[in-house]
Task: structure prediction
Amino acid sequence: AYDARPGSAGGAEAVDAAWDELPAIPTGWASLPWTDEYREFARGAERRRATRDAREERATTLYELSSVFVLEGRRGEGLGASIVKRLLEKHRVAGGSAADVHLLTLATT
Result:
């Protein structure tokens, strides 16, 4: 399974389109490292890698917290809230921000 980066879109159509955008891979004599065709293909590959890396650097990593379970006999004591607060504080100390975190809650379980 592949986990797409946040904000990425597409599916099979996007993958097909990405392949269609790639230049033809040099073959035969043109595939030798000292030929102009090979060098141009290699420069294009490097440009695509640099573009991809820059895009990934700008992407924000998102964190999700859901389904904190507290035994029925201990509910109402603030244990769940304490767990969430401590996790958020650890996230903040590690350099994260509240904008990176999504909390999913249910009214009752």
Summary: Helices lie at 12-21, 36-58, 79-93. The two ends are 30 Å apart (CA to CA).
